[in-house]
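Quick one:
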Amino acid sequence: MIKKAAEYIRIPKKVFFSVLAGIALAITFWSLRPQLTPVDLGLVSEGVFRRSIVDEGITHFKERHIISAPADGITPTIKIEAGDSVEKGKLLFNFLWDHDFPMLSPINGYVLKVFEKDRRHILRGTPILEVGNPQSLEVITKLLSEEVIDVRTGQKAIITNWGKDEPLEAEVIKIEPAAKEEISALGVKEQRVNVYLRMTSDKDLWQNLGDGFRVDVAVITDEIENAKLLPVGALFASEGKPAVFVYQDKKIQLIPVEVGKRNRDFAELKSGMAVNTQVVLYPGSSLRSGDKVKPRTL
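Output:
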């Protein structure tokens, strides 16, 4: 086959086989050349550094009242239902005692629960209704005792997953002094502390939030403006000190850095690099300073 091809194009055999040998040599050289290690890159940026404690929370009407029987007597059929609005000083129902005893609402708000719906004889102190003021809405989150050490009254908090995309702002108003033992979903005993938050966002944004709604809470324990933000995935230890690989001109260079506080995504970069410096993310143990690399993404 090769002979026929050589005769057809009328190339001397020596030249033809020399060309084939050259092609084979080129292919061999190409396959054996050092391969550039692919790496992922991140960027040093500037912005607000935040460190927060994230957990679930429950909304709660702080101002709430239980309407109870003032004496042994008869509660009538209660016509109002949970969710109905009530006005301060307005009649809720008449309790049947020696005479009709008017039961008035102590607040403006809503009926939260109806304990006694049907007409029947009840004893003094029996709960009949519970009413609450939505303007007194607060959020209670139960934080781990080892995390709550960093929480202070007045700190900002962000409320998310409350029903709308826009996050709500709040602040810490109270931290209970004692922890309580609870069992996690995995069956682990935990010591948790109740932390109370007050809404600081405009009331129009959260007016539809009711009592007992589940939300996500992030209590901001640290906030630094105009900080250099280094992706934590770029950090590794070199001779016991933090360092990164900087990418420039297809090569990487090991650079020691000084970092401050960290969160899940970024470290506060105090010295070592300028903003917009490209760094290698999650560098492998085989990488060395001076290696040529190929970025997967820029």
